[in-house]
Specification:
149 residues, DUF5680, 19% helix, 3 helices, alpha+beta, 8-stranded antiparallel β-sheet, DUF5680 domain-containing protein
Length: 149
């Protein structure tokens, strides 16, 4: 779990969209983090609405995965979407062992509120995160995953 938390903090949460490696899949964005025998790979498509998958490999074998999809509300302009995603990255930098899937259970900054609710453990889980701005939900994402057997 320590590796997963490090990887999540070091990729999208800190780098954003621009710090990707050459993607394996055409039209995708890809972020990676390596440490020892572990590799974390996050591949996703889209921006305002996106879908993707995170995979943790150990010695070249996939051992854990999470799929996700979501985004900002349909009527959000690109500048507002960028502000929401800047806030999302701040929340995701606070990922911890008690909630290692996306971000903390709650993170607040000004008019922005991030919330994550989930059930299960690293072996099998599902959850949802939302961001509200001035009391209105402007972003939501669903995710699920677990250990690959």
């Amino acid at each position: 779990m320590d590796f997963l938390i490090k990887a999540k903090r070091a990729t999208y949460a800190s780098q954003g969209d621009d710090a990707s490696v050459t993607p394996l899949l055409e039209g995708s964005r890809q972020l990676e983090f390596r440490e020892g025998h572990f590799l974390y790979r996050d591949i996703y498509f889209g921006m305002r609405f996106f879908a993707g998958q995170e995979v943790v490999y150990y010695k070249g074998n996939p051992i854990w995965s999470m799929c996700y999809s979501g985004g900002v509300e349909k009527d959000s302009d690109i500048e507002f979407a960028r502000k929401v995603y800047d806030f999302l990255r701040k929340a995701m930098r606070n990922v911890g062992a008690e909630n290692p899937f996306r971000g903390p259970k709650e993170y607040i900054e000004g008019d922005y509120v991030y919330r994550d609710s989930n059930e299960g453990g690293l072996d099998r889980f599902k959850g949802k995160e939302t961001i509200s701005f001035a009391g209105k939900v402007v972003y939501s994402l669903n995710y699920c995953g677990g250990f690959v057997r």
